Amino acid sequence: MTEQTPPPPTTGCRTAPVLKQRGQREVFCGLTGIIWLHRKIQDAFFLVVGSRTCAHLLQSAAGVMIFAEPRFGTAILEESDLAGLNDAHAELDRTVEQLLARRPDIRQLFLVGSCPSEVIKLDLSRAAERLTQQFAPKVRVLEYSGSGIETTFTQGEDACLAAMVPVLPSSDTRELLVVGALPDVVEDQMLGLLADLGVGPVRVLPAHRIDDEVGIGPNTVFALTQPFLGETHAALERRGARHIAAPFPFGEEGTTAWLAAIAAAFDVPEETFTRVTEAPRRRARAAIAQAAAPLRNKSVFFFPDSQLEVPLARFLTRECAMSAVEVGMPYIHDAIHGPDLDLLPQGPQISEGQDVDLQLDRCRAARPDLTVCGLGLANPLEAEGLSTKWAIELVFTPVHFYEQAGDLASLFARPLRRKAILSPRVEAAE
Ligand code: SF4
């Protein structure tokens, strides 16, 4: 593997034909986002208005002890609520009153819709307005949907952030807003790089606390750190903010391109950019070269799941020497994913949406060396001898920016290493 990333392809995948599918999907629902958002927004509480299934999903996925006073919970809709025998709004008001009386630390309350609340058409926006009036200014009540009927699991964060944008105050200050929930250690690295470049003031959405929040206006420029923030992108543009389009900060190349786009918007001199990025770029390239050895000349197939698929395919093909067979995304937004598609060398089938049986047929026919997919598909494919990587792991693990670039390559290399270790033993056992 070369130490340098290859030059941009003359023709990327931005204008490649897209296979659009609208069949059965195999993905987690948007409630999953609460698992990382409740850690990030430290004065918030996420109240899911849903069923026992929703409560079990959150409890088991988040792995939080029930006596640990977590910052999320479920207002259970009983059968009588679903049958319309109770006044669900009155019950929700009572639950919220009890919660806020018991937890004075809560400053932001998110009412999170689910499949059951959507099916009975419970109007959570009306409830949020009513409860905001009741509890303002101490508590702000917002609502969004995490229902699995329409959302994939990362869209929960998108819906949450998009719900926050309209209530942020107005501002005329020229500021950079970095949008997307990152692990604190990664966020600190990013803020350190931007400070060294002389870019500022820099704000982050979501902020840790409501008092840290910023204003938005026509002088706000924003950069996304997560490729699944389509609604938030649209909401920010409606407030007059301007998006800095860039590849996403995965790998050495993506991070450099992301920082370069911001540096250009803030007139950072080229020598400053080179001085600040030279050493971390070198470290990232070395770490990738070491971690990605098992990936070289291997093929990868992406099922649509996390919405990270296009930037990750760009990273794997250009920085880890893999070839992509199919790159599936739940949704493709040109304004958000275009810069990564420009860099993705032509060849893979780009697909949007899912018809899972047809896609499984394509995957089985291609027999890729590595398949990136959801948990529900991984085990059956492993049983058929295909190596898989769980898409959800890529969202839960710190993978952005230079210092995590080697770890990102390692995440993909691990299933291939495991297979290489196990294969001789399996053959011997047979
Ligand atoms: S929101 Fe829907 S998909 Fe998600 S746990 Fe609840 S019932 Fe299941």
TrEMBL record:
Annotated keywords: 4Fe-4S, ATP-binding, Bacteriochlorophyll biosynthesis, Chlorophyll biosynthesis, Iron, Iron-sulfur, Metal-binding, Nucleotide-binding, Oxidoreductase, Photosynthesis, Plasmid
Broad class of enzyme this protein falls into: oxidoreductase
UniProt keyword Chaperone, yes or no: no
Cofactor(s) the protein needs: [4Fe-4S] cluster
Catalytic activity: chlorophyllide a + oxidized 2[4Fe-4S]-[ferredoxin] + 2 ADP + 2 phosphate = protochlorophyllide a + reduced 2[4Fe-4S]-[ferredoxin] + 2 ATP + 2 H2O
Residues of the Nitrogenase/oxidoreductase component domain: 29-406
Pathway stated in the Swiss-Prot or TrEMBL entry: Porphyrin-containing compound metabolism; bacteriochlorophyll biosynthesis (light-independent)
EC numbers, comma separated: 1.3.7.7
HAMAP family, alphabetized: ChlN_BchN
Main function: Component of the dark-operative protochlorophyllide reductase (DPOR) that uses Mg-ATP and reduced ferredoxin to reduce ring D of protochlorophyllide (Pchlide) to form chlorophyllide a (Chlide). This reaction is light-independent. The NB-protein (BchN-BchB) is the catalytic component of the complex.
Assembly with partners or alone: Protochlorophyllide reductase is composed of three subunits; BchL, BchN and BchB. Forms a heterotetramer of two BchB and two BchN subunits.
Similarity field: Belongs to the BchN/ChlN family.
Name of the protein this chain belongs to: Light-independent protochlorophyllide reductase subunit N
Originating organism: Sulfitobacter alexandrii
